[in-house]
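Section 5.1 Outputs to date
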Amino acid sequence: MIIQIKGNVKYPITLDPSVWIFDDRKVKLEEAFTPSTVLNEDVIESNSKLNKPPVNHSIKKYNKKELLEHSYLMPIKEFIENAEADKQVSEAILNTTDNNKFKITYGELLESFLLFSIDGKQIKEKGPAYLYYGDGSNRDEPIKGIKVIELR
C-alpha cells in the first residue's frame, strides 16, 4: 500500500501512508476544510519545521484514543516539492488501484491533501489514500485508491 510520485521529476519518490499517523503535518478531516484551516501554510510550515522528519519524538504525548477516533489527511505539497518537478510540469495524472486515471493541474495537486486514515485505521478498501482538493470541492467524492502520481 504505497504511492509513487514519478514522471518529470528529478527524484521519484515512494510514499508509505501507513507511517503518517505520527507525523506532525497531519490534519484532522473534520478540521481540514473550515475557513480557518484551508491549507493554512503558516501552520503546516511551522509544524513541519518541528522535526526533520516531522515525526513526534514523544509518541506517548499523543492521546491514543484520539488517534483511533479521527480521520486524517496529509498535505501533499512538501512531498511533491521534494521530488523536484521539472519547471515545465503543468499537470498530474492520478492512477488508481482500479486502473482509472484522473488528470488535475499541477497547482491543484500542490494544494491537495491525501486522506490516509479513517477512524484511526489505515485505508484498506480503495486505499492506500484518497485525494481531496485543497478547497474541499470534492469532499463528497474524493479520488480514491491513489497509487501513482505522475507529473507531466
